[in-house]
Amino acid sequence: MPLALIILLPLTGACLPALMQGRSSRLLASISALPVLLSLLLLLSWLPHVMNGGDTLVQQLTWLPSLGLNVAFRLDGLGLLFALLITGIGCLILLYARYYFEGNDAAARFFTLTLLFMSAMLGIVLSENLLFLLVFWELTSLVSFLLIGFNTDRQAARLGARMSLVITGGGGLALLGGLVLLGQAAGGYELSTVLGAGDRIRGHEHYGLMLNLILLGAFTKSAQFPFHLWLPHAMSAPTPVSAYLHSATMVKAGLFLLARLHPALGDTPEWFHLVTLTGMLTLMLGAFVAMFMHDMKGLLAYSTVSHLGLIMLLLGLGTPMALAAALFHLVCHALFKAPLFMMAGYVDRATGTRDMRKINGLWRFMPALMVLSAISAAAMAGLPLMSGYLSKKMLFTESLLVTAPDWAVVVIPTWVTLAGLFSVAYSIRIFHNVFFNGQPIDLPLWPPRGVRAAALSPIALLALATLLVGLVPEQVYTALVQPAFTAARQALVEPYDFSTLGGPLPMVMSLVALAGGALFYHMRDPLFRLHARLPAVDAKEIFDWLMRRAIALSQRRVFQLENGSLQRYLVFILLTVLVLVGLELLAVDHWHGGVTLAPLDPLTVLAAILLCLAAIGVVVYHHHRLPALLLLGMTGLFVTVTFARFSAPDLALTQLMVEVMAVVIMMLALSFLPQTSPRGSTPFRMGRDLSIAVLMGIGVTAFSFAILTRPQETISDFFLANSVPGGGGTNVVNVILVDFRGFDTLGEITVLGIAAVAVFAFTRDLHLKERVVETHPGHWVAEPHPIMLSTVARLVLPIALLVSAYIFLRGHNLPGGGFIAGLITAVALTLQYMAGGLVWAQERMLSPFRPLIGAGILIAVFTGLGSWLFGYPFLTSAHGHLHLPLIGEFELATAMLFDLGVYATVVGATLLVLANLGKLMTVAGPGKEIG
């Protein structure tokens, strides 16, 4: 079974609702649920194997093995448990959204984003490679930002989305550092390697640092104190988002990560204190605040925070079965919390408010919803025969087994009992206040609209699952939790003995929590009055204040360094280099390393002198832009001659073409600027800049002399030795570009394409002031498109294209290649623009430029992907010799396809920039879109 398919099905399925904007929510929900159901069926097909103690399934596709980055997926009991929750509850959320978004034009956007989020969550729980896990981790933060801010017209939604992104994104950065350290300590980034290196990791000198960084990432994602602020303020999202992201999926990602990495990081004093204490604080804080919330979703949000703290506490306890209790309660929480969120959504739609001080006595209008909600609320309170009753007794039992440190023996059992008391109180409150407690008060919508029976089906299914877990816990534990516990512990574990939950002390703790919670709720009125006297603390206002201060501070610091002055930037850069490198150079005892330099010949000296004079001319005439540009082009030509002199023909050809195109493009840009620039530098600045330039020149000369006179071995020997056997070409430069460093080249052409498209976007609707050409009587007016240039240009074009093809085809064995050939083609076509004008040349172009850029990048990417089909790493090239009649034997390499992608991208990007800058010079202004 291809594990990637489980992730790809929702990912590709997300395209379907995006293409069906404006369709009914019923159709959108059906289309969206289909790929999720397929993923769920694939997972269920693996369940019998996991229940029977089957081995872990690992599937891997080699990508960048030198960086430890491979596309690898892992399915074991732990991943299966979370994946079943993600897809199973996800299907019910999609069914619920079918009724919630009925008549809402934004329904398609919700279904698209939800499927994207589901795919990212599946990527987290099924990743074998930690670096890929991190990629999916960040994707969940980005997509949840869009889901929380779904109602873009509401300020609360925008602020809540920003808060969640800042907190979880910041935690993601910490997690990045922690996982990198973890991989280095374990000797690899595959979970199979990391989980087997627990002793080495715990004994590593950086164990404390990596543990803190990973915990920071997990705490922010799972809303642990003090990073819990984002979860309650994410309740401005639509209710289906709250029911899915913040009860069953996203907030469980941090818990999954700690359960997954427990064999590598757990069972240490540091783990116990950090995880347990954080869980205790979060458990109590969430439970206390939830009791006094008047907003239904606010109460459920803080209760979620509390239950996440409960699970985190169990993950940190370290008792033999604490991890099993954590996983069991995680399942129970997902099953009873999602339907409570759904109930809140239906009540909000029916009454127009979520304020429990107004919502009362709804049992008369929604009796079926009342019965179903009673089951979920009872499970959350931990009433007997309910799933929550068992999971909380497991918590009480495990808390009594803690033997060290001394303070924990008494504090932890007392603490969890008190938190259980609050959970009973807020569970009673959300049920009693909404469905009983008198008559409704000033509801915005009256009378409340009932809920259709079909709309209650997802709540009914979850309530039934909650009852099932409470009635047959051993079977549910054996099927789902024990395989996950075994995978998390990486060892065979004993079945959980549910008979131990009937001990006297856990029973007393349960009775105290139940009775105390009921009494607390009965005394709620004086307690609410007492709570109202406490100082009001608005976490969102504190967060916004911190954000404003941080932004203002960063703006001041940025403006101190980055004020738009290129001169200042160069000063900072050059001074930094002078200080860091200069100090090292001053410590050198012998400048001459013993290697004799090659003798100078008169021609090289003359070229060097002319190069220096041209560079000095640029400085002297920099106020006169046209002469300065011509002198700048001259320096480039002398650099080209230097490359050719020292046997670098590829570099010489590339430099020559780049110089030609650079001068043409800068001429276009300069045509909109004054011919001269103002003289703004003071004598002090000129002296300062001259001193820095002289020191920098001396330093570079000294550094180059010290390097060139010392014996050295470079990586060039490797490339020279492996160019033919490894890359199938004698042109080492081209083989490096398209084979050895092909991934770098792919990134470079991608950046080039992005830059060209950015120029197109910036100039698309740009209107510049028309230039006025002054004419005087008696003066000849220059012809903009001379007939001689036009004639020569048309004759040169086929020759230049032929040369370009020749340079391209021979590039793997002789100087040339796709980049140089692309520049030659671009220069030839640029000449047509100069000779015939923009309109004339554009009418004769056979292809627009942006599709050409896209095609080039896609050709390069698919060339790299093709190697995967044969089991080789990304961008691995193949080469061989073919024999054709009349032509004879010739070499053919797949790198030529990659080079073709480079060629197309270079041609498209260069001409897109040139044509859109030239478009601004036409009499008609921007006119028709070009590119």
Detailed description of the structure:
This protein is 69% helix and 3% strand. With 931 residues, the protein is mostly helical. It has a two-stranded antiparallel sheet with strand order 1-2. A hairpin with a 4-residue loop joins strand 1 and strand 2. It is elongated, with a radius of gyration of 35 Å. The two termini are 45 Å apart.
At a glance:
By secondary structure, the chain is mostly helical. The chain is built from 38 helices and four strands.
Tell me the number of strands: 4
Unreliable runs? 772-776, 923-927
Strand order of the largest sheet: 1-2
- Largest sheet features: 2 strands, antiparallel
User: What is the number of helices?
Assistant: 38
Overall shape: it is elongated
Average pLDDT, to the nearest integer?
86
Helix content class: 55-70%
Look at the helices and sheets and give the structural class. mainly alpha
Q: How much of the polypeptide forms β-strand, as a percent range?
A: under 5%
Distance between the termini: 45 Å
Alpha-carbon Rg, integer:
35 Å
Give the key terms.
two-stranded antiparallel ribbon, mainly alpha, two-stranded antiparallel sheet, 38 helices, about 950 residues
Topology of this structure?
Layout: H1 3-13, H2 15-18, H3 25-51, E1 57-64, E2 69-75, H4 77-100, H5 107-126, H6 130-148, H7 155-186, H8 191-194, H9 198-202, H10 207-221, H11 230-233, H12 239-245, H13 253-260, H14 262-265, H15 269-291, H16 296-317, H17 322-351, H18 367-381, H19 387-400, H20 406-435, H21 457-471, H22 473-489, H23 504-522, H24 524-532, H25 539-561, H26 566-586, H27 602-620, H28 625-645, H29 649-670, H30 683-708, H31 716-727, H32 732-740, H33 742-763, H34 787-809, H35 818-836, H36 838-843, H37 849-866, E3 879-884, E4 888-893, H38 895-919
Antiparallel strand pairs: 1-2, 3-4
Helix pairs in contact: 1-3, 1-5, 3-4, 3-5, 3-22, 4-5, 4-12, 4-17, 4-21, 4-22, 5-6, 6-7, 7-10, 10-13, 10-15, 12-17, 15-16, 15-20, 16-17, 16-20, 17-18, 17-19, 17-21, 17-22, 18-20, 18-21, 19-20, 19-21, 19-23, 20-23, 21-22, 26-30, 27-28, 28-29, 29-35, 29-38, 31-32, 32-33, 33-37, 33-38, ...
